Amino acid sequence: AAPFLAKAMRRLKPLNEERGKVQHHRTALAKKVAAGLHKLGKHVSAQARLLLRHKLGKAKKTPEEIAADVAMAQSVADAVDLSGIDFLIDATEADLAAVAADSAQMVLAQLGVTDNSDLVNQVNEAAVKYAEDRAAEMVGMRYDAAGDLVPSANAEYVISDTTRSLLQDTIASGLEDNIGLDEIAANIEDSFGFSAERADLIARTEISRANSEGALEAARGAADELGLNVKKVWQLAPDYEDQDDDGICQDNADDGAIDLDEQFSSGDDTVPAHPNCRCVVTFETDSGEDTGEEDA
Fold this sequence. Notes:
Largest sheet: 4 strands, antiparallel
Strand order of the largest sheet: 1-6-4-5
């Protein structure tokens, strides 16, 4: 039998994460998250004040008393009601869906899909579903079969968990320094956990994730529905340095072209691998031209 000739692989152009639509939704999301975190910070500070009253100790402390302060900080942080962070569900969903749908359409266009309305509708629906699921997941929730929000045991990158951890650190530091109840409460409101800087980090990370998830969904749809051979590739940011993330993204880039449903070395399906990750995942597909070499 005649040997099969390998097809040349064509790498798609990486999506520009600074394009107008991404910047617009990232800015809009950061503003909404900043307003919500500011309001939540005031509420949490008031709760902590009530929980800590009559519990502040003396200025000089033994190691045992310092350890007790750490335990108290954890106890107070655990007792604080953070349900107000659920504002993120309504605040983020529309922006995530818009960016995911936009990136999906851009990838389909690069793959030559311009007149398949069924596939276009499919990836648009997937973008909306992703946004709904991620908006719930970031506060530790999921939608059940009836469409109701319920706690999720398998949620990843849960912002409410990180918020509680940051709160505990702020309280523990205040107790250790014996700065008093008023200053501890003020420090909670002014802390990174409820800051505009954190809102920007959340918006940047979540919009990046939506951008890449939409692109990946489009690639999967094209592969499944049209029989295209599509691989994904982790592409490092132009200014990437190993010390940014202990080499996590470099390891992902070293994986080369992998199957769409395969995970990169970090355990991620696509970017980002960490907050503020500026890498991109792009795709390779058959160009339709023979390379002249026999396929193994």
